[in-house]
Amino acid sequence: MADVLTAEAVRDGLGGLAGWTGDPTGISRTAELGSFPAAVAVVDRVAEVAEELDHHPDIDIRWRTLTFRCVTHSAGGVTHRDLELARRIDDILRSAR
Ligand SMILES: C[C@H](O)[C@H](O)[C@H]1CNC2=NC(N)=NC(=O)C2=N1
Fold first, then answer.
1. Domain extents for the chain?
2. Closest CA to 91 of 28, 36, 34, 18
3. How many angstroms is it from 19 CA to the middle of ligand 1?
4. Where are the coiled-coil regions (predicted)?
5. From the CB of 52, is ligand 1 less than 6 Å away?
6. CA–CA separation, 27 vs 74, rounded Å?
7. β-pair partners for 51
């Protein structure tokens, strides 16, 4: 099982991720899309990536604003798998704008 990262390692990882904040208890990012259908389409693409990685974000949908939270539930904190998932979510968000 992946190890929970130290606060410093999470900080380093977040350095390469625009818009994400957090600490070893979880990392999150909010993004506003152009419409509710556009937001739901992003969630659908994130679902595909989550299945591919077998790693799943917590997702909050409020009209066209999405909040993603990544934490490895089985490890009880943020692991390298969350940083990878966050990078993939950013790729999707970039291409959705
Ligand atoms: C068996 C499978 O790897 C696990 O149940 C996965 C699925 N997706 C997961 N996603 C997240 N975020 N944390 C987990 O611990 C987790 N566990």
1. 7-96
2. 18
3. 24
4. none
5. no
6. 16
7. none
Cα 87 to ligand 1 centre (Å): 17
Ligand 1 near 94 CB (within 6 A): no
**Which CATH fold topology does 7-96 show?**
Gyrase A; domain 2 (3.30.1360)
Q: Is the CB of 45 under 6 A from ligand 1?
A: no
Q: Which one, of 87, 80, 91, 88, lies nearest residue 9 by Cα?
A: 80
Quote the ipTM score: 0.93
Cβ atoms of 43 and 59 closer than 8 Å? yes
What's the pLDDT tens digit per position in 32-80? 999 999 999 999 999 999 999 999 999 999 999 999 999 999 999 999 9
